[in-house]
Structure of Vacuolar protein sorting-associated protein 41 homolog:
Amino acid sequence: MAVNIESCESLPPDEEPKLKYDRMENDLLNILLKDAVSCICVHTKFICIGTRWGVIHLLDHEGNIVAISQDGKPEFQAHTIAVNQISVDQNGDYIASCSDDGKVVVYGLYSNDNTHNLNLGRAVKSVALDPCYFKSGSGRRFLTGDHRLTLYEKSFLNRIRTTVLHECKGNVQAMSWQDRFVAWASEVGVRVYDLVAKCSLGLIQWEKNPNRSIEDYRCNLLWSAPKTLMIGWVDTIRICVIRKRSQIELQTRDVTEYLVDPIYTYQIDYFIGGLGPLDDLLVLLAVPKECDPKTGKSQMPVLIVANYKGCEFCEISWETLDIRGYQEYNCNDYHLDMLIEENRFFIVSPKDIIIASPYDIDDRVTWLTQHRRFEKAIAVLEEVGGKTSKHSVMTVGVQYLDHLLSEHLYQEAAILCARIFKNDKVLLENQILKFAGVKQLRTISPYVPKTPEQALSPYIYELILFEYLEVDSRGFLKIIKEWNPTLYKTSVVINKVIEHLLNTEVDTNVYLETLALLYCHQKQYDKALTTFLTLQHKDVFKLITDHEIYNIIQDKILDLMTLDCDQAISILLNNTKIPVEVVEQQLANHEEYLYKYLDAYSKMEPNGRYHGKLVRLYAKYNKEKLLPFLRCSDNYPIQEALDVCQANNFFPEMVFLLARIGNTKEALQIIIEQLNDINQAITFCQEQNDMELWIDLIQQTVDKPEYVTLLLKRIGNYVDPRMLIQNIKPGCEIKDLKECLAKMMCDYHLQLSVQEACKVITLRNYFDLHEKQVMAQQRGISVTDDFLCCVCHGRIIIRDMSNASDLLVYNCRHSFHAGCLPEGDQCAVCNAVRM
């Protein structure tokens, strides 16, 4: 089985890892007890490892042995010493290996055809099978590398034809074959050979360091794409692209069709043990250059994930690997192979194989939850539909909620609870109970479902209400107002409130208001009304109007008026179920309330039923309204009203009432003697238009010079000024007499002029209309054949003169035969209509 491992030094706590690691065990452990791995080749079907004793083993990806031959042998002794390199064709049918013992072996897993066992008599450092070796028409080619690069291919009569492609300086220590291109490395550098064009595409020289020789380090070659070559050697990385030249280049120069273009080159602080692609990133198996300062031995290798496509080599993540026996190894002892399609990496050391693979969704969620990055974990799950084989948004949400509660982040926990568990009532209720355990139900209360369709069990809402009841009375009242009463059992809450009031010394007003609302929810409106009135709370009026409980307020009218007179009157007047007699009886001993009620009632019902009583109430509570009321109403006893006004010395009202009953002289006397208002007296006389009243006014004021002045200025428009002048006593000193006389005479003459002008205009209009009438009557009337006698209905105009008779045609255009017309000189038709 594969065992999960943890690196000795992990990423920073906030950095999400790219890869997870599993140590390969199973049958591999038995192999490594006796031997050590010298090379590896990974195929999608299996893993092929070569050991230092020259044995080749075939394993599945979990480390279990797979039979390597048709007779079921678990291993193949291909060489006598360590295997240098293994190559597998694309289909996984053939394996090629080489060693320093001089042997090159091509072994068929399913057939003995096209297999080879060559002894070249010299150390062979590298080998590569044609990826299409399994195909019958491929030529069955393979390459070997020693001090030359040699191509072997099948020729006529199944003979092997060898072709030396290149003579190398030093050994060909590594090679990799992809389609028509082969890349190999020697101590000079890396070359790429085009097998179709049979030419080298160029040399990629490697920088030499005087302190180290590149021959001492294995070159790592990998085709990450059909025309992309990755090279890692010593401490330098190069990413090369095989580019096809343009037609212009091919025509103007004698060059190869393709060329190798190094597009990225980076030098790092590690020795490179292997490299490969991870999507758009680069994975490096790196070995620290320096030894451990404490032990003097090698340090742990590092697996680096980096972005190489920018201007700089940027490490995204790195993890040290706890390889068995790493202290004794150098970078040449490590190998990195991979399955590009699956992004799986096999990290190989002589005594260990570790598989690195990308985190799947479950792995990511597990890591994120372990590092308390719950929001990110939930987001990852939501991207894949909210659920995987091991995790779901709900399970992670529960963990997250527990974490927030443990950190006392109650508000965040409440928001999370509503967001994650809103579609699972049972789970939501269980999580809400956790808030009850820490006495934070008030925090979750804004987020619980409040519609009847989504409602939880009543017990949950009752728990929340009880916590508010004990801790936050205002909040308790607010929730009772906002929540639908169907969410909880109101009787249970009412009992709890009453119990709380009896057993606890608290501000009762808030709880009584809440109790009134609960009674409303139970439709116990009489109890709610009583409670509101006890509190003197104005919501009682809303209660009455909303639920139309007019039948139970008739004995509480005085209480309602005391609480808010205006609102009470509005309710009493807008409802016919409460008779006026009942209201009057209830308010009989509270005349101010009765006045306000009858005042409003008289505006709605002007039948005058209570106008007599209103006169007395106006006189007592609002004198300003009395006179306008007396003017607009005819439904009060005038004598009683006059008695009230006389008793209270309401002189303007007395003047109006006296004038109304015809006692204008007494009214005028009150104006002069009590009100001392000559202007009002003059206006009063103008309104009454009574000559005797003018005489009384003159006689009563002629001995007062200041009044005479005003009379002289204003009387000329209404009476003959001589009446005033003749009554002025000789020797009376009148202020501004000259101006007053001049104005009086001017006003008098103006009045005469106006009268004369009106007379002239009237006469002129009369004669003009008379002339028009005479002309209209003298105008002739056209008589046609269409005219008929209005009596016999015969034609007026008769052609036969022997039957003709006299005709009569009126201005109203009615026509008659003289013999048909009844007696009289008027039109019979119009006269009948008038009759």
In short: The longest strand covers residues 258-267. The radius of gyration is 61 Å. The mean pLDDT is 84.
